[in-house]
Amino acid sequence: MKGFAALFFASSASAGLPRQATRMMHTVKGHVQRRPTLAHSVVGFLLFGASDAFAQQIEGASATQEEEKEEAAGIFGRKKEAAEAVKSSSSLSRIAFSSEHFSAARFLSAGAIGAFFGGYVYPFAYKRLDVIFKGSGFMTIAKKSLVEVFTVGIFANSVSMAARGVLGGKGHLDVLSHVKEEMAEITLNDLRVWFPYNLLAFGLIPISIRPATTSLMECLWQTYISLRSNDYQQTCATVLAM
Fold first, then answer.
1. Is the dihedral of CA 112, 157, 152, 52 positive or negative?
2. Around Cβ 196, how many Cβ atoms within 10 Å?
3. Which end of the chain has a smaller Cβ tally under 10 Å, C or N?
4. Minimal CA–CA distance to 54: which of 171, 236, 235, 218?
5. Are 224 and 192 within 8 A, CB to CB?
């Protein structure tokens, strides 16, 4: 999130918007400055909720593809022919945003988590990081990014995953086992994604388009977190094998 709401409205004037749009943005900016927590919470709700809705569609498309593979295997009798029967369409290309693959409760749960992190956790954490690591030099940004991944990143990802599991009706032991199973890989991917992006964002990407790129990155990352948060099959298989 990284202050997306405030950054967006602060940079709108330099983005070449029409005069009426600029006046409107300044008006909204005034409301954001007066109630920043509410603004960040709304943005967090929308980002987390939309990302989870997209993740649900990916999961639904993947499940449909697996069902078709099983049906094809029953018809052809061999997995090779079954794979050939459905190989022409990937799970991503089959996303149709069906209501059958959408859970409003899960969407609202993800949105509530996003509102909490966007309104309270992220602003506090990044403000503290800015106080500790002052300046915009390469080494300062690199140090800040590394500390962010291994402190804010681990905390936010683990709490977000655990909250999604509990709110989704999973047992506490299942949730703890799943988070433990996933966190090492998620932290490594966090480092792979956000560390280089932070270097680019603060070093090369103009402030006028940085809100859009950060928003896109956050949506993609939260879609990934949603997918990993709700994939209990691998964890359950590991627990059963022990």
1. negative
2. 11
3. C
4. 218
5. no
Backbone region of residue 29 per phi and psi (left: phi > 0; alpha: psi in -120 to 50; beta: other values)? alpha
Per-residue pLDDT of the chain (242 residues), as tens digits, is: 455 554 544 444 444 556 666 676 666 667 667 788 888 888 889 999 999 999 988 888 777 766 666 666 665 555 555 445 444 445 455 555 667 778 899 999 999 999 998 888 888 888 888 889 888 788 998 998 899 999 999 999 999 999 999 988 889 999 999 999 999 999 999 999 999 998 888 778 776 677 667 878 888 999 999 999 988 764 444 333 33
The per-residue DSSP string of 93-154 comes to TT----GGG--HHHHHHHHHHHHHIIIIIHHHHHHHHHHHS-S-SHHHHHHHHHHHIIIIIH
